[in-house]
Amino acid sequence: KEENPVLFVIFGGSGDLAHRKLYPALFQLFQKGQLDQHFAVIGTARRPWTHEYFRETVQSNLHEGTAEQQAAFAAHFYYQSHDVQDAAHYVILKKLIDTLDQKYQLQGNRIFYMAMAPALFGTIAQYLRSEDLLSHDGFSRLIIEKPFGHDYASAKELNDAIVSTFDRDQVFRIDHYLGKEMVQALPYLRFANQMINASWNHEYIDNVQITLAESLGVEERGGYYETAGALRDMVQNHIMQVIAMLTFPEPETLCDQTIEAAREQVFTHLHQLSEDEVKAKFVRGQYGPSADGQQIGYRQEEKINPQSNVETFVAGELELDLPQWQGVPFYVRTGKRLLEKKTRIDIVFKKATSNLFGGESLAAPVLTIEVEPESGFIFSINGKQVGTGTQAVLHSLKYQLTDADQQLVPDAYERLLLEVVRGHQSNFVQWQDMAGAWHFVDKIRQAWEECDCPDFPNYTSGSMGPKAADDLLAKTGRHWIYQG
Ligand code: NAD
């Protein structure tokens, strides 16, 4: 339990992300003593709120702790009405920052969180420097949220605007999948077990399957989703980061630079698809109403164009041009309104060639990593059929986090915010990674724009997506291990 003195300035402090995710995550850190006496939070947005009203809104989003703990926490919160495009407002903000720095003895440490539209990130970054809001005696760090651009060109423009003000090691690009317990557990699984590490390659692995299924539809975020779609919203960032955690070469040490360099290897070796490969290897879908008519289709949702061709589902096959992974397909799948919320990874090992056991083809062993809602591993391996038979059958070895373990798991935002406070970069997205992922996704988008869109809607709400996603694997004799 060690306290790190720090001031948070949240741009977009009245917004949904700040209230639903950031303030509860900071409260967790407060309850654990990682934030204690020496911290303060300034929320800024255009509305003319008072500090008191702001504190009430913060408290009303805390669902744990006693009223006293909540009030003690909220007392560290201050509100500053602020238009990010107005230079004069930064002068006022600086005064409040300096006052709070003194009052809470924050040693000049500052974290600026961009919890608002990315179009304003560059403007804010530039004013922070020109109006002298960056620290002279402590650290200044910047946290950025997705969506980081909508293609490579816009992401680069955004990045250029930020890195002209902040150094590389001051910028923390959040991908909350990197803060999930079982995603962080992947390097342990790989590198702390020699037998797994030794078989983690094309000689032993037949294919890898990654499923990020959501049961919810687009909800109230239709306006944003119409400009994004599943490819940009889930594949470019979360799925790519999970692939990187599964495949980066073993680093010599666990320091930020070596892990970043190892992850960069993956992104620079993503096999970039040709137009023909996109047609053969990527499919898209859009949800229609549920079979019982209880749930409406995407085109009937609020703020959605009734003829929209935006995809709410993507499945595809990608490959890495790295010797270790030569020829191993990575099948990925994500979508809204699928059967259930589920994030899991299935590592499908090659079948044994032995015909000792009844002469029948043996099943493929599978190592499943359950990310959420359950968290754990399931290892399905061949063993003896119990009794007098001579067949080999699959047995499951299962490890699941208990309820008591789950209590120890920090929320992804809590974990990542603490890493920013400590200045650890290895679980954040580097620009090179993002650039590689955008190039990959841009190729798919361009190819899709060139060809006719499938007849949407093409999957029923509550199913596991369009049939084309199953066909993708079936044509090589494979199938999705997770069927829902
Ligand atoms: P929101 O619309 O709820 O909040 C936006 C905030 O920005 C508000 O506080 C608003 O007052 C402020 N703002 C807008 N223009 C301003 C200006 N010119 N000057 C000062 N303040 C201004 O949005 P949100 O859902 O909180 O999302 C914020 C960012 O985080 C977006 O880029 C979003 O895509 C991203 N994000 C949100 C979530 C989520 O769960 N909400 C998840 C991931 C990423």
UniProtKB/TrEMBL annotation:
Q: In which pathway does it act?
A: Carbohydrate degradation; pentose phosphate pathway; D-ribulose 5-phosphate from D-glucose 6-phosphate (oxidative stage): step 1/3
Can you tell me which residues bind substrate?
A: 176, 180, 214, 233, 336, 341
Entry keyword set: Carbohydrate metabolism, Glucose metabolism, NADP, Oxidoreductase
Q: Name one Pfam family in it.
A: G6PD_N
- Recall the GO molecular function terms of this protein's record: glucose-6-phosphate dehydrogenase activity
Tell me the enzyme class.
Answer: oxidoreductase
Can you state which reaction this protein catalyses? D-glucose 6-phosphate + NADP(+) = 6-phospho-D-glucono-1,5-lactone + NADPH + H(+)
Task: Please list the residues that make up the active site.
Answer: 238 (proton acceptor)
Binding annotation for NADP(+): 46, 83-84, 146
Which EC number(s) does UniProt give? 1.1.1.49
List residues of the Glucose-6-phosphate dehydrogenase NAD-binding domain: 9-184
Q: Which residues form the Glucose-6-phosphate dehydrogenase C-terminal domain?
A: 189-480
Hey, which family's this protein in? Belongs to the glucose-6-phosphate dehydrogenase family.
The UniProt function text for this chain reads: Catalyzes the oxidation of glucose 6-phosphate to 6-phosphogluconolactone.
Q: What name does UniProt use for this protein?
A: Glucose-6-phosphate 1-dehydrogenase
Organism of origin is: Lapidilactobacillus gannanensis
Instruction: Report which gene this protein is encoded by.
Output: zwf
